Amino acid sequence: MERIVIIGASSGIGRELAKYYINLGCIVGVAARREELLQEIKSINPSNVFIKVMDVTKPEGKDQLNELINEMVGMDRFIYCSGVGYINKDINIEQEIQTVEVNVYGFTHLIDVAYHYFQTKGTGHIVGISSVAGVRTISISPSYSASKRYNYIYLKAISQLAKQNKENIKTTTILPGFIRTDLLKSRNYPLTTSIEKGGKMIFKAIQREKKIAFCPAYWGVISFFMLLTPPFIWNRIIK
Ligand SMILES: NC(=O)c1ccc[n+]([C@@H]2O[C@H](COP(=O)([O-])OP(=O)(O)OC[C@H]3O[C@@H](n4cnc5c(N)ncnc54)[C@H](OP(=O)(O)O)[C@@H]3O)[C@@H](O)[C@H]2O)c1
Question: CB–CB of 6/125 below 8 Å?
């Protein structure tokens, strides 16, 4: 029976993925700060779901993840979904730093724990959620845009490292477009996909162990044109 850990499973994409894996009959470990939401997920199949209340910005995340893996008696796939993001034209420092703590510090910290675990085990799959917001500079969300670029580069680097070391550790980087979750609640965005559709696409990409997946796929084409757009036009679009 496959054992999946999902960090940031209390809402949005992580919660949707947790439901898919529970329905598939997997052993699923779910972590986030909001315990009541994790308990709701556990209630779907109490014997197969393990919960860990965790704030990924704290150093104890490493021990908490190891505890969760022990309680589940192992892990085959690690999915990091925790993330925050703000439209932050005023560069509110607290929001900028919180974004770095969750999207960069927590991401790196826990992915490294998973990497070492899979090194010892000899095999494993690490999944991270970047974003099309990391494809090109988004002036109105500086730390979010930069953090999503970081997610993409970091996973690419550890994937290369695993290959160089001949380790059987696979990575999948998901680049979602706009998927209707709490993350987008501050604004109306174009081309928004429902969480049901978006979650299904992301689940399929993970199951296929794709290296990189835009979800929905047409965001790959949009990203291509984003990169081709001359800076003076891009600066007018992103306001
Ligand atoms: N929705 C989109 O359109 C979209 C597009 C591109 C990329 N993404 C990425 O997808 C990922 C998931 O976002 P979402 O859209 O599903 O948003 P969401 O519904 O707001 O989910 C965010 C998750 O992150 C967790 N989280 C936040 N701060 C945390 C902390 N300090 N410690 C532990 N967990 C924390 C939340 O759990 P608690 O609050 O319970 O801790 C929640 O489970 C993020 O990385 C986001 O950047 C989303």
Answer: no
Mean pLDDT of the residues in the chain: 97
Looking from the CA of residue 37, the nearest atom of ligand 1 is: 40
Which atom of ligand 1 sits closest to the CA of residue 174? 7
Closest Cα to atom 2 of ligand 1: 179
Atom 19 (ligand 1) nearest CA:
12
CATH of domain 3-237: 3.40.50.720
pLDDT band at 58 (very low <50, low <70, confident <90, very high): very high
Q: Is the CB of 147 under 6 A from ligand 1?
A: no
| pLDDT > 90? residue 185 | no
238 and 138 in contact (C-beta within 8 Å)? yes
Strand residue runs (E) in 8-86: 27-32, 49-53, 77-80
Q: How would residue 188 be classed by pLDDT, with cut points 50, 70 and 90?
A: confident
